[in-house]
Structure to design on (278 residues):
């Protein structure tokens, strides 16, 4: 039985009064009886409130084992959206830093942009809101904090907004995906690449294989369009393969969808388009 179950069972046992208890209660003076009842209700309320906060092993919804650092290709993001993207960046930008389990883990911990004011210059450059060009727009960061950051805070190294966003920027610079692809001769082009060649280049460079997502071919097209790359890290921030191990959640939950278009894991057999313009 779980900790929660044991606590509730013990509470129910304590609240079962026999006939002798009832007799004693009837003999109490009204003032003492009121205090007695108030004490019991207070204890019951506290037990029920804290019971759900006890850790319950890996079955707890907010227990995670690895992090995904997601990069997205701005041109493809714009292609997926009906929004009018204005001059999307011509380099891979951050989509988010995601624990592999749990979403919106603490809805009372609200995003506060002043806590990351020291990071603002890097945030605007490496983690821009691709769909909205205003420099003052922070909704994208708020969304990432609310949905993923509040779950990451169970790790001490990520237990504040500044730590969470700062670590994502640090890992992004460490990966240096833009430079890696250029060194491998993979750059935006009107010609097609083979997905196996892209994977081979990345695996050779990093020692692990990232999860690569593409926009499937539209009607009349023959090529998929590369859109997102996710690199996986342990809780010690060491690179690891993104494959799902026994007992871990399915990373497919992180597929990106805009409107009716959705990214999915790239096919190794389809030609791959790495677009330079929308």
């Amino acid at each position: 039985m779980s900790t929660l179950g044991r606590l509730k069972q013990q509470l129910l046992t304590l609240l079962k009064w026999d006939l002798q208890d009832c007799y004693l209660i009837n003999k109490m003076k009204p003032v003492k009886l009121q205090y007695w009842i108030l004490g019991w209700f207070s204890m019951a309320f506290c037990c029920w409130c804290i019971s759900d906060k006890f850790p319950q092993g890996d079955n707890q919804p907010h227990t995670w084992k690895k992090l995904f650092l997601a990069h997205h290709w701005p041109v493809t993001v714009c292609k997926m959206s009906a929004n009018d993207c204005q001059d999307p960046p011509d380099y891979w930008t951050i989509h988010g830093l995601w624990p592999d389990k749990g979403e919106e883990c603490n809805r009372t911990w609200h995003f506060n942009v002043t806590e990351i004011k020291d990071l603002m210059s890097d945030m605007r450059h490496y983690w821009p809101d691709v769909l909205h060009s205003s420099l003052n727009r922070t909704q994208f960061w708020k969304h990432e904090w609310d949905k993923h950051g509040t779950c990451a805070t169970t790790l001490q190294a990520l237990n504040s907004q500044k730590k969470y966003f700062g670590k994502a920027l640090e890992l992004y610079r460490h990966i240096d995906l833009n430079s890696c692809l250029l060194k491998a001769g993979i750059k935006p082009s009107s010609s097609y690449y083979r997905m196996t060649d892209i994977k081979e280049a990345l695996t050779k460079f990093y020692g692990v294989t990232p999860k690569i997502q593409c926009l499937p071919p539209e009607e009349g097209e023959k090529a998929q369009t590369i859109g997102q790359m996710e690199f996986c890290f342990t809780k010690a921030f060491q690179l690891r393969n993104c494959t799902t191990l026994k007992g871990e959640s399915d990373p497919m939950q992180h597929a990106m969808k805009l409107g009716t278009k959705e990214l999915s894991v790239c096919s190794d057999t389809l030609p791959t388009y790495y677009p330079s313009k929308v």
Q: What stands out?
A: The chain has a mean pLDDT of 81. The domain at 67-274 is CATH 3.90.730.10 (Ribonuclease Rh; Chain A). The radius of gyration is 26 Å. Residues 30-51 form the longest helix (22 residues).
